[in-house]
Amino acid sequence: MHRTGDLYGHFQTLEQQKETATLGMWIFLVTEVLFFGGMFLTYTINRSAFSTAFGIGSNTLDITLGAGNTVVLIMSSLTMAMAVWSAQVGKKKLVSIFLIATLGLGTVFLGVKAVEYKQKFDHHLIPGRGFDMKYHPSHPMPGDDPKELALEKNEVEEAFAHDPDINAHGQLYFSLYFGMTGLHALHMIVGAGLLLWLIKGSFAGRFTPQYNTPVEIVGLYWHFVDIVWIYLFPLLYLIDRHR
Amino acid sequence: MSEHIVSPKVYIVIFASLMLGTGLTVWAAFQNFHQYNIVIALGIATIKATLVVLYFTPGHRMFYLLASDYAGSDARRL
């Protein structure tokens, strides 16, 4: 494609090029809202139909890891915004530093998610043949708190009394948990790839006050992924916690 | 259209508000507000999302683009 400096041939000015790219990204993000919207709707319908199973499933998640990851992701949004600011004011070194920080925080988020997924495998909470909500309370893992385990056992037994099909309905909750957080994680992985590309560009000193569109556009995407998590955290981790 | 640069101070204030919102979400989840627990959780999430869109992204620019550039001033310039 014909290109003069940073300006592609089919645009007249850098400003027009930036406006077009920004509008394009917003339109893409609107389609993403529709995409995630389907999952949120499925979640809403199933949660209202099987509230006991969703409550008990949610209580197996680790709030500390979930809330910690929320903090990590919001911090990464801050470093992303700072990367855009650094490019706008011409601090080229800071652009690289903030982009690397964003990538680092994104990686921490994914690492924590991997730890959480592993725990669900160990506790037989992966939808499928081995799924059993009673497994973990009767098979303690090293490091489990006996008090909490006794509470969990009690809770699961109560839930079974309330809803005999809890294992079937619990699988719905965990299917949605893995589906929604997995899709979110996939978006994070795509974002990490984009960040690597930006970091490479920032090392070459490509982003300046005159031209920083890629940083801003990837920033938009990254903030969107953050917003999805802002909703996922209370919806998946915090059901029926007051009981 | 001149570029509007948001000061890092604003970013820090928004970041602090988002942290406060996260803490508030966790606190509220452990209180019994009956059927309003979910309303409160989603309310805080929506406030947080709005803060991200308005301050971390050039969200205001999208409205500017749609309202003035495409609908009005560009057409007048032609």
How many helices of chain A?
8
Order of helices and strands of chain B: HHH
What's the quaternary structure here?
A: heterodimer
Mean pLDDT across all amino acids of chain B:
82
Rg of chain A, alpha carbons? 22 Å
Rg of chain B computed from alpha carbons, rounded to a whole number of angstroms:
18 Å
Low-confidence stretches of chain B: none
Biggest interface between protein chains, with counts per chain?
A: A-B, 33 and 36 residues
Question: Helix count of chain B, per DSSP?
Answer: 3
Which strands sit side by side, in order, in the main sheet of chain A?
Answer: 1-2
Largest sheet of chain A: 2 strands, antiparallel
**Averaged pLDDT of chain A:** 95
Describe the main β-sheet of chain B briefly: none
Q: List low-pLDDT spans of chain A.
A: none
What portion of the residues of chain A fall into strands of 2 or more residues? under 5%
Describe the protein:
The complex is a heterodimer of chains A (243) and B (78). Chain A is an all-alpha fold. Helix content of chain A is 77%, strand content 2%. Chain A is built from 8 helices and 2 strands, in the order ββαααααααα. Chain A has a two-stranded antiparallel ribbon with strand order 1-2. The mean pLDDT of chain A is 95. Chain B is mainly α and 78 residues long. Helices cover 78% and strands 0% of the residues of chain B. Chain B contains 3 helices and no strands. Chain B has helices at residues 8-29, 37-56, 59-77. In chain B, helix 1 packs antiparallel against helix 2. The longest helix of chain B is centred in the N-terminal third of the chain and has 22 residues, at 8-29. Chain B is elongated, with a radius of gyration of 18 Å. Chains A and B meet through helix 1, helix 3 and helix 8 of A and helix 1, helix 2 and helix 3 of B.
